[in-house]
Amino acid sequence: MRTVNEVAERVHARLHGDPNIEITSVSSISSARPGDLIFVDDPRHLPAAFASPASAIIAGEFAKPTTNEASAPLKPLIIARQPRLAFARAAIFLAQAQQAVPSVHPTAHLDPSAHLDPTVTVEEHAVIRGNVRIGARSIIGAGSILGPDVTIGSDCRLYPRVVLYPNTTLHDRVIIHAGAVLGSDGFGYVRDAGCGGYEKFPQIGRLVLEDDVEVGANSTIDRGALDETRIRRGTKLDNLVHVGHNVSIGEDVVIAAQTGVSGSSVIENQVIIGGQVGIADHARIEAGAILGAQSGIPSKKVIRGKGIVFWGTPARPIKQYLKDLATLARLSRT
Amino acid sequence: MRTVNEVAERVHARLHGDPNIEITSVSSISSARPGDLIFVDDPRHLPAAFASPASAIIAGEFAKPTTNEASAPLKPLIIARQPRLAFARAAIFLAQAQQAVPSVHPTAHLDPSAHLDPTVTVEEHAVIRGNVRIGARSIIGAGSILGPDVTIGSDCRLYPRVVLYPNTTLHDRVIIHAGAVLGSDGFGYVRDAGCGGYEKFPQIGRLVLEDDVEVGANSTIDRGALDETRIRRGTKLDNLVHVGHNVSIGEDVVIAAQTGVSGSSVIENQVIIGGQVGIADHARIEAGAILGAQSGIPSKKVIRGKGIVFWGTPARPIKQYLKDLATLARLSRT
Amino acid sequence: MRTVNEVAERVHARLHGDPNIEITSVSSISSARPGDLIFVDDPRHLPAAFASPASAIIAGEFAKPTTNEASAPLKPLIIARQPRLAFARAAIFLAQAQQAVPSVHPTAHLDPSAHLDPTVTVEEHAVIRGNVRIGARSIIGAGSILGPDVTIGSDCRLYPRVVLYPNTTLHDRVIIHAGAVLGSDGFGYVRDAGCGGYEKFPQIGRLVLEDDVEVGANSTIDRGALDETRIRRGTKLDNLVHVGHNVSIGEDVVIAAQTGVSGSSVIENQVIIGGQVGIADHARIEAGAILGAQSGIPSKKVIRGKGIVFWGTPARPIKQYLKDLATLARLSRT
Fold this sequence. Notes:
eleven-stranded mixed sheet; about 30% strand; 5 helices; homotrimer; alpha/beta; about 15% helix; flat
């Protein structure tokens, strides 16, 4: 629980109304109950927000003058320049207040050489192998398995049944959803020119996820073959995403569900990638490019254009793609 | 074990032959052994069916007159209007006869506040958290993890290693295959207009799966962000399917493997969706439409047409898509 | 640890230099440390290889005459006709030298009727059901669950959290990565012509993976409905691949990540399949064909052409596909 004043201070916003009202959770306007904080980023939703049982409202500057005076007696109003962002930060702040007492469940199996900060929580049936290191306040979900030499920073959250192959490294505040597999072998084989069969190429490199990375449920990220796979600060991966070996992903990249990135490709900072996109091996997506859902990037291709949307297989600027579609439709009709 | 007469009565079909013959399982014609029930929906396969070691046959009306007289001494014949459907129902009926004695394995970990019907089975190393409720005859597979406040109805089957995030609700006769993750966080972030980084938007809503829903192995279904994700009665999802937050899926929908449905989209009743289809956010697929494999539905798009097949990205009626392809091939050749 | 001479003999290559140098692992040139073996398949990388701290080098015939004389005092050189292949085999040989002492962890749960070779390793919290058989030196990863009547050959490696449904059979040297689900129910239903609802068709067949098959993390392979699904010798599947019921995959096939193969399709020997390819039901990909990433094979389609690359949806020879794209671009511009 937090007071509305604590929330307003944390999100650097102005509070109008009683600063001592207590907030326990966040909700939508339609499902709000007493104790909830809600947000409004469209002036048309303000009346419904005030009419709801919520205990406080975050809204944009538009809510400032008249609304406030009228509503101050009703419920506290927090005015933020980016109300949706302030609401998201408030939600994280409220969730921190609810965190449980750290403990290692007796059914978890820890190697004696593992080094866990005393504030770490390890849930039921987790397995933690030799030389694992885990930082302050991190939580290891039930049934998760951390191979030898795994390193996890502070404030990380592994949901149940995550597997980290040996040598995987997570920095701070990394979130891994249930069922994700990190550090698995890349898909690398050498074909025998004689018999045509395949021999496994060594997959013994490492995987590093930097601060604030989040990985969705059942996603898979392979370690480097001989060197490393790396995902940089602030990047978010949705569910069922695949990242191959030796891939390098920059900062603040978002990748929607079921997208796959093949071996040795590079994705630079602030790229936005839709769902089911396929990026073949050794491609490069330069900073700030946007790949529409289901688009396909061929092997070794370089995609360049900050803020430009690419679509189709092979991917081209969306203007070109839509023009191609229109041309085809026109010719088809004649 | 069931008698052939019990089977015929259960599937509402006519029996010709000895009603006391015992049936233990179902099989294909080619792999049939004594005790097996097989089915024939094509008259050409009748001779092979009668020649097989199977103990009984389900067939269509076509098998009625002459065949029956000749074959009655050979083996019982069950005549059904929809023989394939009758066979499917017979298989379920036979499987029910084999169910094990309910028990909670000593290695499972149950919170004292969980409420399980005495007929529930909990397998090895399952974890059941606070306030979970599980109805009659449901089975919780080995290594499955049920978060706080999960509710499961009667006759549900969770295969091993299923994860249910807090607050997930399953109604009756729901089947969840191994490795599926239900109720995980949606892919929702707020971008900070200042630094360009992403802040996690709260993902604290719920997920409801209604009666007779089946979810394939390693599929992922996100809970609502603030409200709910819901999958209605009788809908079937294949393996590795992704369903985003706030999605609403109707009754008797089928979704083949590796299809993804983005946040806030609506799929109405009786829609049929092929494999690897991508549905972007806020789209609506109206009742009875059919989406061909790999087709792509753009954001906010409405697809309308009961019984009409759509294909391509962006999806259009298949006639148009095939015409477009033919036009292109013709122009390419000249 | 192995001597450089042992390595050279094992990979059938010629050694120049001190045969008693000891090798512990493999690495890339850039990350090499003393004790490492590296490889060079491009003459331009030879100087860097010799300058690295690695203890030995595998190189192609090109490194033979002058290089050797100059470098013999520096470090041992192993000359192989296929240096990359020799390096891969050397890595496997070195890994074998490091294998742990077999043991069954006390938290694993074994049915008394299971039969494990005394050299089998079973890790923490694994569950092994009735009549399971496991051959020599196989390793069952932590949290894996093997259903009744599963059979596993010798030298298999199941990484953590693998689920094998009842009756699944693995031959020898099969590798299954974490989170994979093998033998799950196929996606088969019978629609009731009356109400339009779906009844589950029995999915009680089996799944067989032959020698040297490797399956990637979180992939799913369904058993046969009434008969079998089979993947033949030497075939490799990447992460998040889906294989439906009754599918038959030949020898030495490679299938990249997120590809899906629908029910009853046949993939013949030595086919190469890119990522995110979709193969509809009852299709046939004939021996040696190559399917480009994201291509789509319609239902019942036969793809024929050893060494020919197919691309697009529906897939056509890549020459045709690229010509179609060029035609469209040209027409769009006019």
